[in-house]
């Protein structure tokens, strides 16, 4: 594992000169809506800094300039420890500024504990000579709320592999198995036409799937198109999502919010127009899934193009299972204005299952941070016949972060990676 410089605060806290006011400075930190005090050996050599909210309700923070960027595309890991008596979350935010314009950010949040806990935020630099600022903040704070932070440090991880061979197996899965179903070729036994209450799941269109589609109860069929590519669903109902017979090319791809059990079988999402600097990154999404409550069955999809920054985004805090089979994801968006990922999860899911999936990426293949915004209950994740090809030397092919929510169980069968850059974060042992 990559070593990080850590400072541990003394448990015998001693207050030194305090700073109060809407914005002050203490121990290298500036304060927003907070009073501050050094903790430990005094103002000359503090081991930590305490921030205390000076309002009735709202947000307060500490912030400071960290360093100047020097190598675009290189990752930094920012590290500090926090503690506090409140159970509310505290967040560490790293932002990059070109003059007065924010050009990138990364964030990690965790519930406060009475004991010290280490928080690390990985960030990929966007430019050369830009300012990096780190902010530690708490939102929706009550009067008198406080937290303590140690001095901040940063490292440049040096993990790099010389081999482009497999983590687990010596050969990639059968690539024929990962070819998508041609657009519009929906199985004859369509679950949308099945009898209601309850309906059996449809048979697989080709071959034998390890995971059958979920049984649907009185499903609603929705035909999506370029003019109806953002759909809000009832979380107590089941749906069949029918893709158009031609590629879906809507800006931002397909967004599905809510719903219980969902089935998507066959179809193509394509975008060949990279976003410009300052444009919202969600314009480069392929498929965005948020807040489902049952099982989402994805089968025979092809998501690809130079305009695809993240092929699959998962925002799943309601216990959903996401299963993807016989699917190909190609995130070929140039790195810079977008954090290019094959699959990115920042909340959940409870279960993630991949089988016969190929991911080809100009950045990171699997960016898995299921606890990024708050701890989420996770059962287990499973990768079968997963084939990853990385096209850049300036990123990790695999990225995994626990964000203080704890590591989760994973099983890998025939999990193959061809990487040009770093192989895995925190290190390859977390992926074996």
Spell out the helices and strands N to C: EEEEEEEEEEEEEEEEEEEEEEEEEEEE
Classify the helix fraction into a percent range.
under 10%
Gap from first CA to last CA: 14 Å
Number of strands: 28
Low-pLDDT stretches are 1-24, 41-45, 158-206
Which outline best applies? globular
Widest sheet, order of strands = 13-15-17-19-21-23-25-27
The helix tally amounts to 0
Structural class: mainly beta
Rg over CA atoms, rounded to whole Å, is: 23 Å
The major β-sheet equals: 8 strands, parallel
The amount of beta strand, in percent, is: over 45%
Q: What is the averaged pLDDT score?
A: 79
Written description of the protein model:
- The protein has an eight-stranded parallel beta sheet, with no helix packed on it. The chain has an eight-stranded parallel beta sheet with strand order 14-16-18-20-22-24-26-28, with no helix packed on it.
- The protein has 432 residues and is mainly β.
- β3 and β4 form a beta hairpin.
- The model is unreliable at 1-24, 41-45 and 158-206 (pLDDT under 50).
- The protein has strands spanning 23-26, 29-32, 34-40, 46-53, 57-68, 75-83, 89-98, 101-111, 117-124, 131-142, 146-150, 153-155, 220-223, 230-233, 239-242, 254-258, 262-270, 285-290, 295-305, 310-315, 321-331, 341-347, 351-361, 364-368, 380-390, 396-400, 409-418, 422-425.
- It has no helices and 28 strands.
- The relative contact order is 0.12.
- The protein starts with 22 loop residues before the first strand and ends in a 7-residue tail after the last strand.
Summary of the model, kept short:
The protein has 432 residues and is mainly beta. It has strands spanning 23-26, 29-32, 34-40, 46-53, 57-68, 75-83, 89-98, 101-111, 117-124, 131-142, 146-150, 153-155, 220-223, 230-233, 239-242, 254-258, 262-270, 285-290, 295-305, 310-315, 321-331, 341-347, 351-361, 364-368, 380-390, 396-400, 409-418, 422-425.
């Amino acid at each position: 594992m990559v070593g990080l410089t850590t400072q541990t605060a003394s448990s015998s806290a001693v207050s030194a000169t305090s700073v109060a006011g809407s914005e002050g400075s203490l121990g290298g930190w500036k304060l927003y809506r907070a009073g501050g005090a050094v903790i430990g050996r005094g103002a000359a050599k503090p081991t930590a800094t305490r921030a205390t909210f000076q309002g009735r309700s709202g947000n307060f923070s500490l912030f400071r300039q960290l360093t100047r960027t020097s190598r675009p595309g290189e990752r930094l890991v920012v590290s500090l420890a926090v503690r506090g008596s409140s159970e509310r979350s505290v967040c560490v935010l790293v932002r990059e500024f070109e003059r007065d314009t924010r050009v990138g950010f990364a964030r990690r949040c965790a519930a406060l504990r009475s004991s010290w806990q280490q928080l690390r935020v990985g960030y990929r630099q966007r430019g050369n000579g830009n300012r990096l600022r780190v902010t530690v903040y708490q939102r929706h704070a009550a009067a008198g709320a406080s937290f303590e932070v140690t001095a901040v440090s940063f490292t440049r991880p040096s993990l790099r592999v010389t081999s482009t061979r497999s983590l687990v197996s010596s050969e990639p899965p059968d690539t024929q198995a990962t070819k998508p179903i041609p657009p519009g070729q929906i199985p004859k036994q369509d679950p949308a036409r099945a009898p209601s209450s309850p309906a059996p799941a449809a048979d697989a269109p080709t071959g034998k799937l390890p995971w059958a589609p979920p049984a649907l109860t009185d499903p609603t069929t929705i035909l999506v198109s370029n003019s109806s590519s953002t759909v809000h669903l009832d979380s107590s109902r089941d749906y069949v999502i029918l893709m158009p017979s031609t590629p879906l090319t809507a800006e931002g791809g397909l967004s599905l919010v809510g719903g219980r059990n969902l089935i998507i079988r066959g179809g193509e999402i394509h975008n060949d127009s990279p976003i410009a600097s300052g444009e919202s990154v969600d314009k480069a999404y392929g498929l965005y899934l948020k807040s489902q409550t049952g099982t989402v069955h994805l089968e025979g999809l092809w998501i690809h193009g130079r305009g695809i920054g993240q092929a699959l985004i998962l925002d799943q805090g309601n216990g959903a299972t996401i299963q993807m089979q016989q699917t190909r994801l190609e995130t070929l968006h140039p790195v810079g204005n977008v954090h290019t990922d094959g699959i990115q999860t920042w909340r959940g899911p409870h279960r993630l299952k991949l089988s016969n999936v190929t991911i080809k990426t100009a950045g990171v293949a699997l960016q898995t941070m299921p606890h990024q915004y708050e701890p989420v209950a996770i059962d287990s994740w499973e990768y079968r016949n997963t084939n990853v090809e990385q096209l850049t030397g300036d990123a990790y092919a695999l990225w995994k972060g626990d964000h203080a929510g704890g590591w989760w169980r994973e099983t890998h069968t025939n999990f193959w990676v061809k990487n040009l850059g770093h192989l895995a974060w925190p290190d390859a042992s977390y992926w074996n």
